[in-house]
């Protein structure tokens, strides 16, 4: 059954930004006096909001981060994104196939609206979603709480049980399940077993997504 709304996460689902952002973040956290590798940063923080990272690191330090830390990190991250960012392979085609079925789509991300506009703009995906972008900054609690997905569904005029969420992180899957939504988890760079255990149906190739959602591929007729 085709859903009434498909809600996409952004980083790691639409845009291939996780490696870039977590590399810069690990460097920034280390420079603040808390040694952290890229692998540790990605394992601990992927899918979460930046404020969640700041709160955690400040707790580890036992003191606030240096003045300007957040602005400096975002500036360095954005510079790297402008140089290196690409769309997730097959994401644009999958979104277009879903839109062609007249199924509404939106984005619900832990990132800020500014970051979404940057990354989706750089990869040419912004036009697929228009203003249907929802950030964790709009709700009281970000992922893994369900607030963001429930807010996105409400703003799009849909009830949770008629929505499908496309995620790639444990925090995101947990949030979507808590919202009462079906979850499809893209596992090209994540632990499929962990996401399955959290309640998601997993897939490895974006070309699979439309059919998993319930959109049948167009028939090809040959004379």
Oligomer: single chain
N-to-C series of helices and strands: EHHHHHEHHEHEHEHEH
- Rg, Å, rounded: 18 Å
What strand order characterises the main sheet?
Answer: 3-2-1-4-5-6
> What's the CATH topology label of the largest domain?
Rossmann fold
Outline: globular
- In CATH, the homologous superfamily of the largest domain goes by the name HAD superfamily/HAD-like
Number of helices: 11
At a glance:
This protein is α/β, with parallel strands linked by helices and 223 residues long. The chain has helices at residues 18-31, 38-45, 50-61, 69-84, 91-100, 113-122, 126-129, 147-155, 170-178, 192-197, 209-213; strands at 5-8, 105-109, 133-135, 163-167, 182-186, 201-203.
Structure, described:
This protein is an alpha/beta fold and 223 residues long. It has two domains: 5-16 and 86-213, Rossmann fold, CATH 3.40.50; 18-84, Putative phosphatase, domain 2 (DNA polymerase, domain 1). Helix content is 46%, strand content 11%. The protein is built from eleven helices and six strands. It has a six-stranded parallel sheet with strand order 3-2-1-4-5-6, sandwiched between helices. Helix 1 (18-31) runs antiparallel to helix 4 (69-84). The radius of gyration is 18 Å and the shape is globular. The two termini are 31 Å apart.
